[in-house]
Design brief:
The complex is a heterodimer of chains A (293) and B (408). By secondary structure, chain A is mainly α. Chain A folds into two domains: 173 residues, Cytochrome Bc1 Complex, Chain D, domain 2 (Orthogonal Bundle); 33 residues. Chain A contains ten helices and four strands; from the N terminus they run H-H-H-E-E-H-H-H-H-E-E-H-H-H. In chain A, the strands form two sheets. Chain A has a two-stranded antiparallel ribbon. In chain A, strands 3-4 form a two-stranded antiparallel ribbon. With 408 residues, chain B is mainly α. Chain B has three domains: 33 residues, no CATH class; 231 residues, Cytochrome Bc1 Complex, Chain C (Up-down Bundle); 109 residues, Helix Hairpins (Orthogonal Bundle). Chain B is 64% helix and 1% strand. Chain B contains 16 helices and two strands. Chain B has a two-stranded antiparallel sheet. Chain B starts with 11 loop residues before the first helix and ends with a helix. The chains are: A mainly alpha (293), B mainly alpha (408). Chains A and B meet through helix 1, helix 5 and helix 9 of A and helix 4, helix 5, helix 10, helix 14 and helix 15 of B.
Chain lengths: 293, 408
């Protein structure tokens, strides 16, 4: 009886919550959720696709970096394990294409070619300079793929803990690059604004940055906007989380160890507690193993 | 309960030490022969888990502090430096960030277990109050640690939470200026938060020692809520409790590792990967998940001062629980009505957590108000009255009877 009453209370409370709140949530979403892409780096065995990171880097170099800095990324990172897989010589060659501001041995400001230890120099001297050109300062791209997300909503976020869905950032970026379209008739687009289906509020300052055929791929990958968006998103994910591959690999080792440890601990516990839990059988001289648990 | 120590060291060196500092005897009586009720379920392993998590947080925290720079222009970059350039820095930081969440998850299980089985009742009032103090210290420590990252959510959480003190009439603004060390959240704020974030965990460790001391004086409660009456009701801490705690700790660490290695940013906010910018306010300023129920209570009340008072009261009220609950029966197993109100209370707390993550508008506010009323009514109305009107079930004669049946 009490259980029944209890269940009724719970059911009513839950029904109350769901019933009244559903319309409130529906109104909130006039921005569609980005479609989920297939990423090589998702899931417990995820790894970055070297070819994809190299293509993404090419897009960054030829398109994004005109406006966006990526200041926490160093040239040496290009040759780090788990990354785009450039050799050290290739990374050094990339670095030498850049001019780095430095002081010469008389203390005078000078410019020298980049070295492996340098980070990517920003396109603007500072935020104000970027703002003066673009109206708003284009965000730094070092952590961008982890700094963008969208609300998954209940119950999806619960399932995400099991499915390990962590790719909201790259999904959003890929969707955004494909999301430019004509504004609906009743939408008031401010001057210098651009309508984007996936941008919160739809008014984005960045003009459509990528068009099909704009960047030449030399590995035969399709030179389409869809492919470009995925490649640059994967590259930005790597830039934001360069140790992802090492993390997931160690995760598997740790999991195997912990599951074996927990199993052994469980049987040790069972053995230690056995006599306590079956004292009557032992007192009667019976074999506790043959009695029901 | 610890009783007189029967510890007799074998080696000559230990005998020599024992005469001068009986530390071996202390360990022996507290963690070896210490009698624990034989019927403890796995919810009782969370005390050990919490001690373990405090250790994890202190060890990872001390190493992180070696690489962190508490300066507004460098803090975010130094955290990213840990993630990118420090050997296994990503592991240390993800352990520490997710460790805080695991710590709070474990403490909530520990607290709800205490409420369900009436573990705060006479003679365990001081033990319970020390626990409430630890919880308060944890909240302060967790909040200040989150600010150290100096991302957007760090900065704005610091602004919102410190601004709560401005609601105090008369001296509010002065207090806030004093807390900030300036006229806005800035470098002095970050510096003092860093200092306190390093200090408070050791204060927690000190209160934990008192908490365990108090526990060893009054002994553990158990699922029946009746005190052990004979030796048949208890088992020795080692090996029985140690092996059981050890097993469940391993299970808990699997959960912890799942978050650290596979979904390390699930419990965080994307906005905190944007460096702090005082000129740009995030669309929704949301605290970490473990503060959400209290955030919902704060926003449920239209008046700022009353909201802050309600927020404080919702935590402080826990310390009065031993006297608000008037029932003489401890365990919910024998309190059919209490059990229903308890589970409703759990639903309300989770519901408040969910509402805390939603914008304070429309139906969310109304629900938050209803839930807030239940939260306080549970302590101030339901618990005092239940003790008087509830018809409890008959208690077993002893712990061993409840475990083995009347025949034993």
């Amino acid at each position: 009886m009490t259980m029944k009453v209890h269940r009724t209370i719970v059911a009513l409370a839950l029904a109350g919550c769901v019933g009244v709140v559903a319309p409130a949530i529906a109104q909130e979403h006039d921005t569609p959720n980005p479609p989920m892409q297939k990423w090589s780096f998702s899931g417990p065995f995820g790894r970055y696709d070297q070819g994809q990171l190299q293509r993404g880097f090419k897009i960054y170099k030829e398109v994004c970096q005109v406006c966006h800095s990526i200041q926490m990324l160093a040239f040496r990172n290009l040759a780090d394990p788990g990354g785009p897989g450039f050799s050290e010589a290739q990374a050094a060659a990339v670095a030498s294409e850049y001019k780095i501001k430095d002081l010469d041995d008389k203390g005078e400001p000078t410019e020298r070619p980049g070295r492996l230890a340098d980070t990517f120099p920003p396109p603007f001297a500072n935020e104000l300079a970027a703002k003066a050109v673009h109206g708003v300062a284009p965000p730094d791209m070092s952590t961008l793929a982890k700094a963008r997300t969208f609300e998954r909503g209940f119950p999806w976020w619960v399932f995400d803990t099991i499915t390990q869905y962590q790719e909201q950032g790259p999904d959003y970026i890929a969707a955004l690059l494909n999301g430019y379209e004509e504004p609906p008739k009743d939408f008031q687009l401010p001057q210098n604004g651009h309508y984007n289906k996936y941008f919160p509020g739809h008014n984005i300052a960045m003009p459509p940055p990528l068009q099909a055929g704009q960047v030449t791929y030399d590995d035969g990958a399709p030179q389409t906007l869809e492919q470009y968006s995925k490649d640059i998103s994967a590259f930005l994910m790597w830039a934001a989380e360069p140790h992802l591959v090492a993390r997931k690999r160690m995760g598997m080792q740790v999991m195997v160890f912990l599951i074996v440890l927990a199993g052994l601990m469980y049987f040790t516990k069972k053995k230690v507690w056995h006599e306590l839990e079956k004292p009557r059988e032992i007192a009667r001289g019976q074999d506790p193993k043959k009695t029901a648990a | 309960m610890s009783g007189h120590s029967t510890y007799q060291p074998q080696s000559k060196v230990l005998q020599w030490l024992e005469k001068r500092l009986p530390i071996g005897g202390l360990v022996h009586s507290s963690f070896v022969v210490y009698p624990v009720p034989r019927n403890l379920n796995y919810l009782w392993t969370f005390g050990g888990i919490l001690a373990f998590m405090l250790g994890v947080q202190i060890i990872t925290g001390v190493v992180l502090a070696m690489h962190y720079t508490p300066q507004v222009d460098l803090a975010f970059r130094s955290v990213e430096g840990i993630m990118r350039d420090v050997n296994f820095g990503w592991l240390l930081r993800y352990l520490h960030a997710n460790g805080a969440s695991m710590f709070f998850f474990a403490v909530y299980v520990h607290m709800f277990r205490g409420i369900y089985y009436g573990s705060y009742k006479e003679p365990r009032e001081v033990l319970w109050i020390l626990g409430v103090i630890i919880y308060l210290l944890m909240m302060a420590t967790g909040f200040m640690g989150y600010v150290l990252v100096w991302g957007q959510m760090s900065f704005w959480a610091a602004t919102v939470i410190t601004n709560l003190f401005s609601a105090i009439p008369g001296v509010g603004d002065t207090i806030v200026t004093w807390l900030w060390g300036g006229y806005a959240v800035g470098n002095p704020t970050l510096n003092r938060f860093y200092s306190l974030h390093y200090l408070l965990p050791f204060v927690i460790a000190g209160v934990v020692v008192l908490h365990i001391w108090a526990l060893h004086v009054v002994g553990q409660n158990n699922p029946t809520g009746i005190e052990p009456k004979s030796e048949k009701d208890t088992v020795a801490f080692t090996p029985y409790a140690t092996v059981k705690d050890g097993f469940f700790m391993a299970v808990f660490v699997i959960l912890f590792a799942w978050f650290v290695f596979y979904i390390p940013n699930f419990l965080g906010h994307a906005d905190n990967y944007i460096p702090a910018n005082p000129a740009v306010t995030p669309t929704h300023i949301v605290p970490e998940w473990y503060y959400l129920p209290f955030y919902a209570i704060l926003r449920a009340i239209p008046d700022k001062l009353m909201g802050v008072i309600a927020l404080g009261a919702s935590i402080v009220i826990l310390a009065f629980l031993p006297w608000l609950d008037t029932s003489r029966v401890r365990s919910a197993s024998y309190r059919p009505l209490f059990r229903q109100f308890f589970w409703l209370f759990v639903i309300v707390c989770v519901g408040l957590g969910w509402l805390g993550s939603k914008p304070p508008e429309g139906i969310y506010v109304i629900l938050a108000r209803v839930f807030t009323i239940y939260y306080f009514a549970f302590f101030l109305v339901i618990l005092p009255l239940l003790g008087i009107f509830e018809k409890t079930k008959p208690l077993p004669n002893s712990i061993s009877e409840s475990v083995l049946g009347a025949k034993a």
